[in-house]
Design a protein that fits this description.
mainly alpha; two-stranded antiparallel sheet; 6 helices; 2 strands; about 5% strand
Length: about 200
């Protein structure tokens, strides 16, 4: 019968530890959407740090293997490793090759990041302003549906039957829309948090 108990890090070969580091970094990258509270991803971050400490103690050059892992995954793995080392001061969200943190990628333009605590829409600041303009001018843009509804349960508390609302085009039915005031309040909330 095979041994089901993991050997301690100190008893593993450097080659095995290097591969274990790559596996653990992949787990962090795949599960980063659960940060900062998901216990599974936090356990993987701890394992990454323990393995890195042992590899550093042994003087193992991990750079070439991390570069290969970056090519294999299309993620910036040296940066992810550096972020894991300072968690929880920095959240180790995996960065795609363009440097955008995948979990925080704006769902509208796909070229910038949203704040980790974004509400209403997972949009960057520029796209949130674009959404305000869309509501004011009654002109939708990709990924947004503009609507009016007579159903109070399908609209924000500020709205009435004639208020133009916005909702995510990928949202569930029945649609729920928010008004310009809701979007402006979210923009202001973000500014207050980033200034604080």
């Amino acid at each position: 019968m095979a041994n089901t108990q993991k050997p301690p890090i100190e008893e593993k070969s450097s080659e095995q530890l290097l591969e274990d580091l790559c596996i653990e970094l992949r787990h962090v990258g795949v599960g980063d959407y659960g940060l900062p509270k998901d216990v599974r991803v936090i356990a993987h971050i701890s394992e990454v740090n323990a393995i890195q400490d042992e590899l550093n103690r042994r003087g193992v050059n991990i750079g070439p293997r991390l570069e290969l892992l970056s090519r294999e995954t299309n993620w910036q793995m040296p940066e992810l490793l550096a972020d894991c080392a300072v968690f929880p001061k920095v959240m180790p969200y995996v960065r795609e090759l363009d440097g955008i943190r995948r979990t925080l990628r704006c769902q509208s333009c796909r070229k910038a990041e949203r704040p980790p605590d974004a509400k209403l829409f997972w949009f960057c600041s520029e796209c949130m302003q674009k959404l305000v303009d869309s509501l004011r001018n009654h002109v939708p843009f990709a990924g947004i549906v503009l609507l009016r509804t007579y159903t109070p349960e399908c609209r924000c508390p500020h709205a009435d039957d004639e208020t133009v609302l916005a909702t995510d085009a990928d949202g569930d039915f029945p649609l729920y829309g928010v008004c310009e005031k809701c979007v402006l309040d979210e923009i202001e909330r973000r500014k207050m948090i980033s200034a604080g």
